[in-house]
Amino acid sequence: MADHEESAMEKITEKLRGDDSSSSSSSDSDDVNTSPASSLKSKVFRLFGREKPVHKVLGGGKPADVFLWRNKKISAGVLGGATAIWCLFELVEYHLLTLVCHGFILALAVLFLWSNASTFMKKSPPQIPEVHIPKEPVVQLATALTIEINRAFGVLREIALGRDLKQFICVIAGLWILSFLGSCCSFLTLFYIAFVLLHTVPVLYEKYEDQVDAFAEKAMIEIKRQYVVFDAKVLCKIPKGPLKAKKV
């Protein structure tokens, strides 16, 4: 009888342990099921669907450091050099070929006089270093440009096929704005404005990204609402012909 009672007590304790483990597993499963929901709720709207930091979006490395003013001396020097070039060509109305020729004349004259003056001073002439362009950066730049140009051609092809009307309207509007800006200022001025924006907008956005993203979320909701109204009143009323199947 004692053995029977002990075996019964062992069964009861095992059952209670099984219930506790099942309840703990169910609570764990509930936590697992609720964790994606909580992560979705905690997901914040980012401009253009950005999931990476601004530094990674700009490509990372030294160019991103320059755009985000991680080294203020280098960024200020680059921006100051671009401003000086823009002032020379736009305000002073200097020409590129003239600037290059005057630069070579000045450099050669200084080196020539320095080399000859060192012989009269009984000093060894200065060693002029050999200048050559490395191959790898040029190949990398050409490869990157080729990839981006091919990607742009692919996007233009998709737009020309008429598969996305919204994208077509956005591209046409963007090109029209660029054409209007091109008629108002020269290409160098437009390039300089874009260069200045690259050195100011990313660093300001990184500093105030929460406020900007909240405002952009409201703006995107309003734009989508207006597009739905435009689609219902205008785009849906445009007659479309039947699509014919192409023979392969």
UniProtKB/TrEMBL annotation:
<keyword id="KW-0812">Transmembrane</keyword>
<feature type="transmembrane region" description="Helical">
    <location>
        <begin position="94"/>
        <end position="114"/>
    </location>
</feature>
<keyword id="KW-0256">Endoplasmic reticulum</keyword>
<feature type="domain" description="Reticulon">
    <location>
        <begin position="63"/>
        <end position="248"/>
    </location>
</feature>
<dbReference type="Pfam" id="PF02453">
    <property type="entry name" value="Reticulon"/>
</dbReference>
<keyword id="KW-0472">Membrane</keyword>
<dbReference type="GO" id="GO:0009617">
    <property type="term" value="P:response to bacterium"/>
</dbReference>
<keyword id="KW-1133">Transmembrane helix</keyword>
<feature type="transmembrane region" description="Helical">
    <location>
        <begin position="168"/>
        <end position="198"/>
    </location>
</feature>
<feature type="region of interest" description="Disordered">
    <location>
        <begin position="1"/>
        <end position="37"/>
    </location>
</feature>
<dbReference type="InterPro" id="IPR003388">
    <property type="entry name" value="Reticulon"/>
</dbReference>
<dbReference type="GO" id="GO:0005789">
    <property type="term" value="C:endoplasmic reticulum membrane"/>
</dbReference>
<feature type="compositionally biased region" description="Basic and acidic residues">
    <location>
        <begin position="1"/>
        <end position="20"/>
    </location>
</feature>
<dbReference type="InterPro" id="IPR045064">
    <property type="entry name" value="Reticulon-like"/>
</dbReference>
<protein>
    <recommendedName>
        <fullName>Reticulon-like protein</fullName>
    </recommendedName>
</protein>
